[in-house]
Specification:
Aminopeptidase, Alpha-Beta Plaits, binds zinc ion, elongated
């Protein structure tokens, strides 16, 4: 064993520590003071938004509230940008243009949290079905943080300089809102972003933790309708029919081999049949069977190959069964391109958040196959970053991790219940500090 030189043993141990503790951001105390001032009111706003959720394309009241909040603060507000979109612009001297986007829509889910402010809202969805409505993706957290950040940044106006653009986006859940706003001139009617940032509530993380991906964060999303055709008839005389139900079953099983047998191992892709509908009665073989699919990919090449394989397999099975050709519709209006965070911007924000939350609470994660149309905010070439905000009560989180613990409901689940006060505090704190850093006075 080598002996350390005696002199080295006398060196103070601090010299061996990796880095000195980084300094907290310059305006942390001011930001925290704003958060304390607005905490009760923001919690009230959260509960109001939570109990008044609105489906995609129906976000009228949420949009009106976001517009009113920004107007009160002195933003130049434009409403009805691509449907119910709201844009608030605040010019505050020279400097970069920073966009902060929050989404407003809820989901057709009947809430089962049992909270005293749980949603009891029911409405008609786009197909005319009566559905419960719930903020099961945490977009109520997003809107509340949005208002909290707006108030904080207006109060701390003397500490930053540049143009702040706050965007309240509709229809994220159907992958349409960002596209609709862009088609309505979002990048032409308002100052173009130098940076665009957003946060998303996370149902699997305790409050105080943040997950992030440098680079690829989320997948391409395609929405596909597939109608398998047959020839209907009596259920007791199948030989006189071409049974689309049996044919659909064969197609569904074969679709499982696209990812497992045709896509290169290690290349992420998903083909899920989320809905199948056919027939009216036990003894009638129907004329057709309707499938609804979601397809996820992370490259153009895989996306193209998977969509072609679905069509090829459906056609081949139809031919083998002497059935009419199937009909396949890829809903390009609902396509959501993959979300890729700018690595440099992401590193900058993660380092900043680490000084406040502790670097151990900033956790990198692999890309997930969910989709988020915030990706479109990067289409001008501006660096973008979306990070994931822990929203779960730390005690509940710890209990879920114990042996035999109850797994936490994911987002889109009827039991997802963020711990609002502390989640909003971390959301407002991190996002305010992010914008202050990006727009720091020189
Ligand atoms: Zn969602
Ligand atoms: Zn969402």
């Amino acid at each position: 064993m080598n002996r350390l030189p005696f002199a080295l043993l006398l060196l103070p141990s601090a010299l061996f520590a990796a880095d000195p503790k980084p300094a907290p951001p310059p305006h942390l105390a001011d930001v925290d003071q704003q958060i304390d001032t607005h905490a009760d009111d923001l919690l009230k706003l959260y509960k109001h938004l939570h109990s008044h959720p609105e489906l995609s394309l129906q976000e009228k009241e949420s949009a009106a509230r976001m517009a009113a909040e920004l107007e009160k603060l002195g933003f130049a507000v434009t409403t009805k940008v691509g449907g119910h979109g709201v844009v608030g612009v605040l010019k505050n001297g020279d400097g970069p243009t920073v966009w902060y986007r929050a989404d407003m829509d809820a989901l057709p889910v009947t809430e089962q949290t049992g909270l005293d402010y749980a949603s009891k809202v029911r409405t008609k969805d786009r197909s005319g079905n009566d559905v419960g409505v719930m903020h099961a993706c945490g977009h109520d957290v997003h809107m509340t943080c949005f208002v909290g950040v707006a108030r904080t940044l207006v109060a701390l106006k003397k500490h930053w300089s540049g143009t702040l653009v706050l965007v309240a986006q509709p229809a994220e859940e159907i992958g349409a809102g960002a596209r609709m706003m862009i088609e309505d001139g979002l990048f032409k009617r308002f100052p173009k972003p130098d940076f665009a940032v957003a946060l998303h509530a996370d149902a699997q993380l305790p409050v105080g933790q943040i997950h992030y991906s440098e680079g690829l964060a989320m997948a391409n999303v395609d929405t596909v309708d597939l109608t398998i055709k047959g020839k209907g008839g009596h259920g007791a005389a199948p030989h006189t029919t071409v049974d689309p139900v049996v044919l659909a079953a064969q197609v569904i099983v074969d679709l499982q081999t696209i990812v497992s047998r045709e896509v290169e191992p290690g290349e992420p892709a998903v083909v899920t049949v989320g809905s199948i509908h056919a027939g009216t009665k036990h003894n009638i073989i129907p004329n057709e069977c309707k499938l609804q699919l979601t397809v996820r990919s992370t490259t153009d090449k895989t996306r193209d190959a998977v969509l072609k394989a679905i069509e090829r397999k459906a056609k081949a099975h139809a031919e083998a069964a002497r059935a009419p050709a199937p009909e396949m519709k890829v809903h390009l209006d609902e396509f959501c391109p993959l979300l890729s965070n700018d690595p440099k911007l992401t590193k900058r924000l993660v380092t900043l958040f680490g000084t406040v939350l502790g670097p151990e609470n900033l956790i990198p994660r692999k890309p997930i196959m969910g989709g988020e149309d915030f990706s479109r905010f990067g289409s001008t070439g501006a660096p973008i970053c979306m990070y994931f905000l822990g929203t779960i009560d730390p005690e509940k989180y710890a209990a879920s991790k114990k042996d035999g613990g109850k797994p936490l409901p994911s987002t889109h689940n009827d039991g997802y219940a963020p711990l609002p006060g502390p989640s909003i505090k971390v959301g407002v704190r991190t996002m305010s500090l992010a914008v202050l850093d990006l727009m720091a006075k020189k």
